[in-house]
Amino acid sequence: MNVSLPALVRGVRQNWKVRTLDLSQGGALLDSPRPIKPGAFLELLFDFHQSKPVPLFARVLRSKPAFWGRRHALAVKFDTLKPEITKAAEAIWQNQRAAAV
């Protein structure tokens, strides 16, 4: 799904915000302000305005400069995809599609 979802990367020393550009059952393409080396593990926290953020672990497959070198596109593979994320992503995707029509 081409869906834009905000997430927080929880790092050892610092957290930072990312956004999905694309989401599938197995992974995502993320828009990140910083590059991450392939092979690195990330903890992503998706906030769907529920009781608490939904954590998800992913491995970085690729990291390339994007948006004229000001951002980075990270291709990540999820360890597992939680049903809360799939349901919320589908609802947001439907809303974004309806708004575009």
Can you walk through the features of this model?
By secondary structure, the chain is an alpha+beta fold. It has one domain: predicted glycosyltransferase like domains (Thrombin, subunit H, Beta Barrel), CATH 2.40.10.220. It has one helix and six strands. Strand 4 and strand 5 form a beta hairpin. It is globular, with a radius of gyration of 13 Å.
CATH class: Mainly Beta
Mean pLDDT: 85
Structural class: alpha+beta
Q: Which superfamily, in CATH terms, is the homologous superfamily?
A: predicted glycosyltransferase like domains
N- to C-terminal distance = 16 Å
Oligomer type: single chain
Main beta-sheet annotation = 6 strands, antiparallel, barrel
Shape, principal axes of CA atoms: globular
Strand arrangement within the widest β-sheet reads 1-2-3-6-5-4
Order of helices and strands: EEEEEEH
Number of helices: 1
The low-confidence runs, each spanning 5 or more residues with pLDDT under 50, are none
**What Rg, in angstroms, do the CA atoms define?**
13 Å
Q: How many domains?
A: 1
Q: Helicity level, as a percent range? A: 10-25%
- Strand proportion, as a percent range, falls in over 45%
How are the elements arranged and paired?
Elements: E1 6-10, E2 15-23, E3 27-32, E4 41-46, E5 54-66, E6 71-78, H1 83-100
Antiparallel strand pairs: 1-2, 1-4, 2-3, 3-6, 4-5, 5-6
